[in-house]
Amino acid sequence: MERKKELKQQYKETSIEAGTFQIKNTANDKVFVGSTKNFKTLNGVKFQLETNTHTNKQLQQDWDQFGKDVFTFDVLEKLKKKEDPYFNEKEALSELETKWLEQLQPYGERGYNKQKSF
């Protein structure tokens, strides 16, 4: 019981970090780029894929076809939060994700993201 309390406390003390991540299929080198306000939520993304409930159908199909062992989850960049009272975390996170989408171009044969139309 003491161990459970320790783990809970450790979880609570872990700082919340935002940023961008990629899910890479090592079998075909396709990539999914995303962002999160809390990297702890990547466990939720894995859970969605394992329970066949992820919203990206193509990523879900490949997960089902190739299995979880060919996928890697990597942090691309952590968001540097500013003390500025006008700092907009959501906007900054969106800009960071756009930067990585432009850099990696994970569309079509190269990835699972859908290109945003402007």
Unreliable runs: none
Q: In DSSP terms, counting alpha (H) and pi (I) runs of 4 or more, how many helices?
A: 4
* Number of strand segments: 3
Radius of gyration: 16 Å
Strand order of the largest sheet: 2-1-3
Overall pLDDT metric? 91
Largest beta sheet, briefly? 3 strands, antiparallel
Structural class: alpha+beta
- Report the helical percentage: 25-40%
Query: How much of the sequence is in beta strands?
Result: 15-25%
Features of the shown structure:
118 residues; alpha+beta; 3 strands; 18% strand
Quick summary of this structure?
40% of the residues lie in helices and 18% in strands. It has helices spanning 2-13, 42-50, 57-66, 89-104; strands at residues 19-25, 31-36, 71-78. The chain starts with a helix and ends in a 14-residue tail after the last helix.
Describe the structure.
The chain is 40% helix and 18% strand. It contains four helices and three strands. The protein is an alpha+beta fold. Strand 1 (19-25) and strand 2 form a beta hairpin.
List the helices and strands and how they pair.
Blueprint: H1 2-13, E1 19-25, E2 31-36, H2 42-50, H3 57-66, E3 71-78, H4 89-104
Antiparallel strand pairs: 1-2, 1-3
